[in-house]
Specification:
Rossmann fold; 2 domains; 7-stranded parallel beta sheet; 6-stranded parallel beta sheet; 17 helices
């Protein structure tokens, strides 16, 4: 089977960023003997710079190819980021026209231009089109007030509906997304839930390394460290995480690892409030972030208090549980349910610095035995619901149904029924 995957923000693990598609592609190539081409941007969104040939590394998995496409560089969320999206999508379509036909094509959001290019290519190549929905655009942009132009909102809403209707299969990452898309009149059988997860064996604990990574974070060994790893954008509501430090004793520290348009403002806020126990670090590769998590005492999940985020399952949830750390979530809804139902952490309240500080203080009182039990429960959850090797196999079985004889006719029957 020949599969194309297109994700503007995909990245190999050594670069950091969205590794889901690289890991799925590698698994299909290595274990399922598929020929997989991953289309990704040479402008790394996490690092906000171009990735040169040497930095891209080499692919040692037969059957897996990476197609790096140029896209317009940007440092802020202004018109240059729009040009970045447009340039990648146009080049994906143009380059794809000159490559051998795939058996199916999977294109991923969040922005809708890559899936649009993917649908057009699927028509040119006469193959099934699979839409993966990572974020609900344009609804997320509207709720975050990042999109206010009525004509643009109308155009993106129509494009969203068009892609939902035209896709042969829709892959979602959360139950909320599945219900949201079904509410728009899309047949439930067409939507499959394949959540984020962890590739087993991608990290092994090194007890001797904890002290070293504490030093890299700039914290002393006696401090209780609450760590946030991820994007620093308006959607992440990290101002409230930084402000929580004002309500914590000196023996606690908050470490934020990552980058984004809010980082400078967070650094300024830290200095204004004199929060010496807040540490803002640069992004690190995916394979290294686990060592930072292991050196911390708990992980923080933070998103803005909007309805659209109550259905989120951020990948950092799986990262924290995989390493065996308790989780504090500021996000009500699906993440809170997973954390509380599985006994792996606390809900601190949304956009509530005092509540977050109180949750951190509660975790400082856990005994060694209680922390070990949380780690065991978290790892059981990963094995049952977040094992990316199992999820890759499940997704491939879903995709294979699109290639069976009569699949298109059955889709038409289901649609008319």
């Amino acid at each position: 089977m020949r599969i194309w995957i297109a994700n503007h923000y995909a990245a190999p693990p050594h670069l950091g960023g969205i590794t889901r598609h690289y890991e799925l592609a590698r698994e299909w190539a290595a274990e399922e003997q598929a020929e997989v081409t991953l289309w990704l941007s040479s402008f790394n969104h996490t690092r906000r710079r171009m990735i040169g040939g040497a930095e891209r590394g080499s692919v040692d998995t037969p059957g897996l190819r990476l197609r790096w496409l140029w896209s317009f560089p940007h440092t802020r969320n202004d018109f240059r980021r729009v040009l970045n999206m447009v340039s990648f999508s146009c080049l994906f379509f143009l380059a794809g026209c000159f490559h051998r036909r795939p058996d199916l094509l999977l294109a991923s959001s969040p922005h809708l231009l890559t899936p649009l290019a993917g649908w057009l290519l699927s028509k040119v190549k006469r193959c099934p089109f699979v839409l993966e929905v990572r974020d609900l655009w344009p609804d997320t942009l509207i709720q975050m007030k990042g999109l206010k132009s009525p004509p643009v909102i109308k155009a993106l809403t129509r494009l969203e509906s068009f892609l939902y209707r035209r896709a042969d299969k829709i892959i979602v990452l959360t139950e909320y997304q599945r219900k949201f898309i079904s509410s728009k009149g899309i047949a439930p059988h067409k939507i499959s839930l394949i959540p984020n997860g962890i590739m087993p064996g991608s990290w092994h604990p090194r007890e001797s390394g904890k002290r070293s990574y504490r030093r890299r974070m700039g914290v002393e060994s006696y401090r209780f460290v609450a760590l946030y790893a991820g994007a620093h954008g308006p959607a992440n509501a990290l101002e409230h995480v930084v402000r929580a430090a004002a309500h914590l004793p000196d023996r606690c520290a908050i470490v934020l690892i990552g980058d984004g348009p809010e980082k400078d403002r967070l650094r300024q806020l830290k200095n204004e409030l004199g929060l010496h126990h807040v540490h803002l670090l640069d992004p690190v590769p995916k394979e290294e972030i686990y060592h930072y998590i292991d050196a911390a005492d708990c992980g923080i999940i933070s998103l803005a208090d909007h309805e659209i985020f109550r259905g989120a399952r951020p990948n950092k949830l799986f990262d924290y549980l995989y390493v065996g750390k308790p989780v504090i979530t500021t996000v009500d809804g699906e993440v809170r349910w997973i954390v509380e139902e599985n006994g792996v952490g606390l809900f601190s309240g949304a956009e509530n610095p005092r509540g977050l500080a109180e949750a951190i203080r509660k975790l400082t009182t856990l005994t060694r035995e209680e922390r070990d039990r949380i780690a065991e429960r978290g790892q059981r959850y990963i094995e049952r619901f977040g094992n990316r090797r199992k999820l890759a196999g499940e997704l491939l079985r879903e995709l294979e149904t699109l290639l069976t004889p009569g699949a298109k006719q059955m889709e038409e029957i289901n649609r008319s029924g």
